[in-house]
Amino acid sequence: MTTTRAIKGAERRAEILRAALEVIAERGYRGASLSAVAERVGLTQQGLLHYFPTKEAMLVAVLEERDQWDAMPDSHWRLDLLASLVDYNAMRAGIVQTFSALLGESVTEEHPAREFFTGRYENVRANMAGVLRSEYGERLPSGLTPERAAPLLVAVMDGLQYQWLLAPEKVDMPGAFRDFLTLLGEKES
């Protein structure tokens, strides 16, 4: 049975995660502090530690929460829905910027998000291979297998995000992604 206290705790945790995302977007992970997040939500740093015992725990929770916003059962992803996701991301630059900055930082040894992103990309590549397989079968028109093409699909999505963040007036992220889908080729009837 969910109690009022548990509901309030979950709401407070969600509020902290939103504030953490904002602070990380503004300052980067390394520049973000627990005290800045605590101040933003009207808590002491000690009060924040009740919800997240470490800065690293808070970071991973922020990343997991962000992924939940885009979550869809694996079996329901299709190429046209991926294009819709790119459209959606083009409307939320702050989230894309935070995600991209954390991804960039995570490639360094000992970064607290490295394990998260490593596991995430294993799952994303497998999911994209499944999307491509359901769309094209065992071979794309180019002859590549879905497993060989999946990392390329992910690289295009992420690479377009970086280019768009740096020059949104010059890079039409949704349009460029749809152009890439055209390059994949027509599926066989």
What features would you describe in this structure?
- By secondary structure, the protein is an all-alpha fold.
- 73% of the residues lie in helices and 0% in strands.
- Helix 2 (34-40) packs across helix 3 (45-51) and helix 7 packs across helix 8 (146-166).
- The longest helix has 28 residues, at 4-31.
- The N and C termini lie far apart (52 Å).
Structural class: mainly alpha
Number of strands: 0
Q: Bin the strand percentage.
A: under 5%
Tell me about the largest β-sheet. none
Contiguous uncertain segments of 5+ residues: none
Tell the overall outline: elongated
Helix content: over 70%
> Alpha-carbon distance between the termini?
52 Å
- Helix-strand sequence: HHHHHHHHH
> What's the quaternary structure here?
single chain
Mean pLDDT: 88
Number of helices: 9
Radius of gyration: 19 Å
Keywords: DNA-binding, Repressor, Transcription, Transcription regulation
Domain HTH tetR-type: 10-70
Organism: Streptomyces vastus
InterPro entries: BetI_C, Homeodomain-like_sf, HTH-type_TetR-like_transc_reg, HTH_TetR, Tet_transcr_reg_TetR-rel_C_sf
Summarize it.
Keywords: DNA-binding, Repressor, Transcription, Transcription regulation. With 189 residues, the chain is mainly α. It is built from nine helices and no strands.
Give the SSE layout.
Layout: H1 4-31, H2 34-40, H3 45-51, H4 55-69, H5 79-89, H6 93-106, H7 114-136, H8 146-166, H9 173-184
Helix pairs in contact: 1-2, 1-4, 1-6, 2-3, 5-9, 6-8, 7-8, 8-9
Organism: Streptomyces vastus
InterPro entries: BetI_C, Homeodomain-like_sf, HTH-type_TetR-like_transc_reg, HTH_TetR, Tet_transcr_reg_TetR-rel_C_sf
DNA-binding region: 33-52
